[in-house]
Specification:
Number of domains: 4
Distance between the termini: 58 Å
Radius of gyration: 29 Å
CATH architecture of the largest domain: 3-Layer(aba) Sandwich
Largest sheet: 10 strands, mixed
Number of helices: 27
Helix content: 25-40%
CATH class of the largest domain: Alpha Beta
CATH superfamily of the largest domain: Zn peptidases
């Protein structure tokens, strides 16, 4: 480091230790009601000088409510770690007095079928609009919460003309801390380690995997969860978005080196029209003017697209708001101070000030356009209805099928998105039934009880996004991608490559993800159907007391939860390996058998209780003699060994991959496990476990941490009877020539010890990464790992690795050899390379086995139809036939 560089850092350090007495005003020219407490008077520090904790924030918001008639605070839920989730509503006192009237009046704008245009104009002229300011979705982006507090103070106490105008024309909803658990962890880390050192290499800017994370308690990214709603925090905010119906929704994030605000980057979701783009341009230009006035640098139209519907800018936009992401340039892992590449030092206060300024500009723009913004909330859905009327009929049909509880879960999710669902009271036919999982169009008769979703409803834009097999990418973006691809293909192997611009996955169709029997038709069912207003309840008939055994299918979430509960309470469970018939009923391979003689008398009360709670039909057997197939005492009825599962966390595992497994096992399926550090695998007693799970991560990290003696230790554990489950990057590690735990190989990997000729390089040129597309799997249902698979299985592929088949083990699932990609973007080279590739394989090693997944079926927990493959890999351990 040269002398001038040292001097720059030294004086920067002095700057942040001795902040100037006169810093830029939060809102120049404003005066404040002295009766309203300032943040400093309650928190003990000025905003941006130090970190605010969750309890301090809730205390301050309630202090504002007590001091100002402009403020109402609502407790709307709590996080996974039981921290309060607050909505802080601020407006003119006259608006606050009639807050519920305002809210319900705006609600009329949601349905143009019942609200006339004249009534909508009347509402727009006489009703304040709702503006939602969302903070700390990613809790470790700390400038967001600080800005929320300052914004609340400005609106509660400000006396300037702009603030008064916002108060009169807008009901501002401040959601100050979307993800409080992540914020609490990060602030604890920063308070323990921060030295206000702007040097980017300082340890305070490099928190560990758990403390410096934007994820929820379960390590799920909340800014990808608006659609799937796996997390309680997501469920709360989506519910409140639909209650308040904002016309603008700003999601405050951080922290790149320069501030970002819209206009959006492409691709923009195909269900959004030019009016949505028009409004985001208006907001963007006004924010730019405010930043220009302060000579603050920023960027727009890059990186942060609006294609994927799970973000908290695209989701509100698909519900009629103008959704925007702000990415500020201070706070977060930049800490209290950070030197940027251009030499500037940005601070936590800078990041909060920029958020605050963008928020005030957005609210003022909303106030200036109140009438038009409310009419757009109405017209957004009115135009959608007109479009549906002029387009070919599209009706979605969801069949309850063999796992009606899973279909009911999907229906429940649609209802949470305010999508109208009906249930047919009679069977009906269609001449144009399009199968989701193939390209077939066929005549089809649907049973009574099928669920119907018609696209001609106010939520048409959102429902088409969630239910269509694919949401197409806009042409300009695809052209940009193909141009970059042409450049990259001619560039040298080591030359810099152009980015394709994909920010997230581009396949998410809910019927496919849930694996339910689904179709869309070109005609609308006009027969008798009832509206569905709550999650469908499945009938449960308590069985008679069984003499020999209780039986239920191993094909549902409920079945897994029952088995997990039985194991926890030390009941014994078995599983059939072949189909059989009894009492006039055929039971499939993979029927759970709970013998009465092998279990205590309490089974007769406990098992029906569990079945009722988990919506699983329970059958009884009074004899072991079957009418067809193998008797219940045959070797084909396998005693299941209670699993003792360890899941690797921290490096080499990636936090969100571990988190998805954590959430699924603990929350969705009720399966206990032990989280073990990857760095401890060389020392802990592996003999305590019969299943060891390696989540997705970085193959290089697996190679670094699990090498030499540690790898040998794991191999010995497998040979002695352990089951090793390797997901994606871990599968690549296991399949490497050096480790050799499986005979499958990455087709693009260069074989060890061979010379790299030009010809070999051409043959083995690695394909470009598939940026999140759906693939169809062909599953061997005769193998134990295929047990309970009774519908097409779709997985998400986002990789550039394709595996060859195992030459020694069982290839349980492969990618469809005719049409690999069902939905989403992939280059032609990948579409060809993926055909027939290995996806799930199982190899015996000594008395144990290694199971590998080419992709992560636990990703974001939303691939419900593929969960069974992972559950089978960790739960079906048998005494007969080995592991």
């Amino acid at each position: 480091m040269n002398v001038s560089r040292i001097a720059t850092l030294f004086f920067s350090f002095l700057f942040v230790l001795n902040l100037p007495a006169q810093q830029p005003a939060w809102y120049p020219g404003s005066t404040y009601d002295p009766g309203v407490p300032t943040p400093q008077s309650v928190l003990g520090h000025e905003i941006g000088e130090y970190y605010t904790e969750h309890l301090q924030m809730t205390g301050y918001m309630r202090a504002l409510e007590a001091a100002s008639k402009r403020v109402r605070v609502f407790r709307v839920g709590e996080s996974a770690e039981r921290r309060e989730l607050l909505l802080v509503v601020i407006s003119d006192p006259a608006n606050i007095q009639r807050l519920e009237e305002i809210r319900t009046t705006i609600e009329e704008l949601r349905d143009p079928r019942h609200t006339s245009e004249a009534r909508a104009r009347e509402i727009s002229r006489g009703t304040p609009a709702v503006g939602w300011m969302n903070f700390a979705n990613d809790g470790n982006e700390t400038a967001a919460l600080e800005a929320a507090i300052q914004l609340a103070y400005q609106l509660a106490a400000g006396q300037d003309d702009n603030t008064i105008k916002i108060l009169k024309e807008v009901v501002t909803v401040i959601y100050p801390l979307h993800n409080p658990d992540a914020q609490a962890r990060h602030v604890t880390w920063m308070k323990a380690s921060a030295m206000r050192n702007p040097d980017p290499a300082a340890q305070e800017h490099r928190g560990d995997w758990r403390m410096d994370t934007n994820n929820t308690h379960f390590q799920i990214d909340p800014n990808r969860d608006a659609v799937f709603q796996s997390q309680v925090e997501s469920q709360v905010i989506v519910r409140e978005i639909h209650r308040w119906n904002p016309v603008v929704f700003v999601d405050h994030h951080g922290n790149p080196d320069r501030f970002f605000f819209p206009p959006w980057a492409i691709p923009v979701n195909a269900q959004l029209d030019e009016n949505a783009r028009k409004w985001v341009d208006i907001y963007g230009k006004n924010i730019a003017a405010a930043f220009d006035q302060n000579s603050w640098i920023y960027f727009t139209r890059q990186t942060y697209d609006l294609h994927y519907p799970g973000y908290y800018d695209s989701y509100p936009t698909l519900n009629g708001a103008t959704g925007m992401t702000f990415e500020t340039d201070g706070g977060g892992n930049k800490g209290l101070a950070y030197e940027l590449p251009d030499g500037r030092v940005t601070t936590l206060r800078d990041g909060a000030l920029h958020h605050f300024t963008g928020a005030m500009s957005s609210l003022l723009t909303t106030a200036d356009n109140r009438d038009a913004r409310l009419m757009e909330l109405y017209n957004f859905r009115a135009r959608a209805l007109k479009e549906a009327a002029s387009e070919p009929v599209k009706q979605y049909v969801l069949v309850p099928g063999k796992d009606p509880a899973r279909t009911a879960d999907l229906v429940d999710l649609l209802l949470k998105h305010k999508i109208e669902v009906h249930r047919a009271k009679i069977s009906f036919g269609s001449a144009t039934a399009h199968d989701y999982f193939t390209d077939r169009v066929q005549k089809k008769t649907f049973p009574a009880g099928s669920y119907l979703v018609y696209s001609g409803q106010p939520q048409k834009r959102l429902l088409r996004t969630l239910l269509d097999r694919e949401t197409p990418l806009e042409k300009d973006f695809v052209d940009q991608v193909m141009k970059a691809k042409a450049y990259n293909d001619q560039a040298g192997e080591s030359a810099p490559k152009k980015s394709y611009g994909f920010y997230d996955i581009n396949a998410w169709s809910l019927p496919m993800a849930y694996g339910v029997e689904s179709y869309w038709t070109e005609e609308r069912f006009e027969g008798a159907a009832d509206p569905v207003t709550e999650r469908p309840k499945l009938d449960f008939v308590p069985p008679a007391k069984a003499r020999m055994a209780y039986l239920f299918p191993w094909n549902s979430k409920g079945a897994t939860r029952i088995v997990g509960a039985l194991w926890k309470e030390n009941y014994r469970v078995a599983l059939t390996n072949e189909e059989f018939a009894m009492a006039g009923r055929t039971f499939p391979k993979g029927t759970v058998v709970v013998m009465t003689r092998s279990n205590p008398e309490s089974l007769h009360a406990r098992l029906p209780e569990l079945a009722a709670a988990n919506e699983v039909e329970l059958f009884t057997a009074d004899t072991a003699f079957v009418e067809k197939g193998k008797d219940l005492g045959d070797r084909s009825v396998m005693d299941l060994i209670k699993p003792s599962i360890a899941v690797v966390c921290e490096p080499p595992a990636e936090s969100t991959s571990y988190g998805a497994i954590w959430f699924m096992l603990e929350n969705m399926y009720g399966i206990p496990f032990t989280a073990v550090k990857g760095s401890d695998l060389g020392s802990i007693n592996l003999g305590r476990y019969n299943v060891l799970v390696f989540p997705d991560g970085e193959t290089s990290e697996y190679s670094r941490l699990l090498d030499g003696p540690v790898a040998d230790r794991i191999k010995n554990w497998v040979r002695e009877g352990g089951r090793l489950v390797c997901i994606k990057a871990a599968a690549a590690w296991a399949a490497s020539d050096k480790i050799g735990l499986t005979t499958a190989r990455d087709k693009f990997a260069e074989p060890a010890g061979k010379e790299k000729s030009e010809e070999a390089k051409d043959r083995k040129k690695r394909m470009d990464t598939v940026p999140g597309a759906f693939i169809r799997l062909e599953v061997d249902s005769e193998h134990q790992l295929g047990t309970g698979i009774d519908s097409p299985v779709v997985a998400l592929f986002q990789s550039n690795a394709v595996f060859s088949h195992s030459t020694k083990g069982a290839n349980v699932a492969k990618i469809n050899p005719e049409k690999a990609i069902l939905a989403g973007f992939a280059f032609d080279e990948a579409r060809e390379a993926l055909k027939g590739g290995a996806f799930l394989w199982d190899e015996q090693t000594g008395r144990g086995n290694v199971i590998c997944f080419a992709e992560d079926v636990t990703f974001r927990t939303f691939l419900h139809g593929a969960h069974r493959l992972f559950l089978n890999s960790i739960l079906i351990l048998t005494r007969r036939g080995g592991r």
